[in-house]
Design goal:
Blueprint: H1 16-20, H2 23-31, E1 36-38, E2 44-46, H3 49-55, E3 62-63, H4 85-91, H5 108-119, H6 122-141, E4 148-150, H7 151-156, H8 158-168, H9 175-190, H10 195-221, H11 227-233, E5 235-237, E6 240-242, H12 256-287, H13 289-297, H14 302-312, E7 319-323, E8 327-329, E9 332-334, E10 339-342, H15 344-347, H16 383-400, E11 401-405, E12 413-414, E13 423-425, E14 427-432
Parallel strand pairs: 2-10
Antiparallel strand pairs: 1-2, 3-7, 4-14, 5-6, 7-10, 8-9, 11-14, 12-13
């Protein structure tokens, strides 16, 4: 949908045209004076940058525990249609998955995030940069002599999937299974599902749980230096996190239910969303030749290109909260127990902060004030890893490829789902750069 499209009807997030390109929907959200608007099956939507910056910190009124106190069964975000007996038979076999990280509230959330951040720190990610370059170059090597590629399946998927698998200590031979699992995990967390989809998701959840439980047992007996081992063997002592060197017990350690949830989120975020980020930046640069030329001339602008893509085309459109009480927002009352969609992608299109928000401008003011990684206590724990992967990917792609184009006969094919803003397929042609 063109950015300046006008509609007689009220746009909704579930409209296929909106899911393909949400710019007109975001503009419509910002035209309203109310801080929140009821979007029917999606729930209430909050889109303003200032509102989201403030309310993302308000975990007293806005709970992240969307699925209730028992945690998620990964059945999707809508109760309709009711789960079928076949689905519930699979659910009965699932191990518990606790409310954690993205779907966690204090005080447990603070402990979970502190333990995860202890491993996913800047120094650790810096040590991963040589591996990221190796993985990026290996992917490019596999198709550079062809003069063309399908960028998503041949680059944007395998690179981040390989990196997050390495971080978690997952064997490379399991990557194909992990791709299926992570796609289904994302659907279970973020999408309204029918029962056919729920059956596929539940089957993957059971396979994923069996695999991770085996890995937990192995890391308990034989601790290593990977992220999963850190989750298994960490404990929080006061405000300090200890990652290894003992076998923690009691409330100072993460439970199996917490580790299952946290691992599922790390896999999905480290794979699906980073895939969309890399593809979104590449498409934006190709479609904006002046920006592409500027980045080629000055590689320090790569970070700006990434931030502008995150602002305009946030890979995750937002996330849900549940109101713990009636909430007054300007002239609107959001009733207690309401599902509220924090539209972080829409915040990047708030005209009060970002002029001409549908325009891709790597030189704009405030471009790093986007909320694509969330905000407040739930700011994405993997943001620095995602940025590093995208930066190195662009560096090597622009160094090794010239005249990168999208064929007119094969335009990018957008993802049509509520949670993600990205592409299913992006076909590229290019010339190999001179050595």
């Amino acid at each position: 949908m063109p950015a300046d499209a006008t509609e007689d009807r009220v746009l909704e997030l579930t409209d296929p045209e909106v899911l393909a390109c949400p710019y007109a929907y975001y503009a419509q959200l910002h035209e309203r004076t109310a801080a929140a608007r009821d979007e029917g099956p999606i729930g209430w939507v909050i889109a303003g940058h200032t509102d989201l910056s403030e309310l993302s910190r308000d975990m007293r009124r806005f709970s992240a525990e969307l699925f209730g106190p028992e945690g998620t069964k990964l059945l999707g975000t809508s109760p309709e249609p009711p789960p079928s007996p076949e689905v519930m038979a699979l659910v009965a076999k699932m191990r518990p998955m606790a409310n954690a990280l993205v779907i966690g509230d204090p005080p447990a959330h603070g402990r979970q995030k502190a333990i995860t951040n202890k491993w996913l720190n800047g120094a650790q990610i810096k040590t991963m940069e040589p591996l990221i370059r190796e993985v990026v170059d290996r992917a490019i090597d596999s198709w550079i002599d062809d003069g063309h590629c399908e960028f998503v399946s041949q680059f944007a998927i395998p690179v981040p999937l390989t990196i997050i698998a390495h971080a978690l200590g997952v064997d490379g031979s399991d990557l194909a299974r992990f791709k299926v699992w992570t796609d289904h995990l994302e659907m279970g967390y973020m999408e309204p599902l029918n029962n056919e989809q729920r059956l596929a998701v539940a089957t993957s959840v059971l396979e994923f749980q069996d695999y991770i439980v085996e890995q937990i047992a192995d890391r308990t007996a034989n601790p290593t230096d990977d992220l999963l081992s850190a989750l298994v063997n960490a404990r929080l002592v006061g405000d300090e996190v200890e990652l290894a060197g003992h076998h923690p017990t009691g409330q100072d350690r993460l439970s199996e239910a917490e580790i299952l949830t946290m691992t599922s989120q790390l896999l999905a975020a480290g794979n699906v969303t980073t895939t969309s980020l890399i593809a979104n930046v590449m498409v934006a640069l190709i479609e904006n030749p002046e920006a592409m030329a500027a980045v080629r001339a000055d590689s320090t602008l790569i970070d700006s290109a990434i931030d502008e893509s995150l602002r305009r085309d946030a890979p995750i459109r937002g996330g849900w909260r549940v109101t713990r009480q009636d909430v007054e927002l300007e002239n609107v009352t959001v009733p207690a127990g309401s599902e509220v969609f924090f539209a972080y992608g829409a915040a990047g299109h708030d005209p009060e902060l970002f002029a001409e928000p549908a325009t891709y401008d790597i030189h704009r003011a405030h471009l790093n004030r986007h909320l694509a990684f969330g905000h407040g206590p739930h700011f994405c724990v993997g943001s620095q890893l995602a940025r590093t992967e995208a930066r190195i990917a662009l560096e090597r792609l622009l160094e090794r490829l010239t005249d990168v184009q999208i064929p007119e006969v094969r335009p990018p094919d957008p993802i049509i789902c509520v949670a993600l803003h990205g592409y299913r397929e992006v076909y590229l042609t290019f010339t190999r750069a001179a050595s």
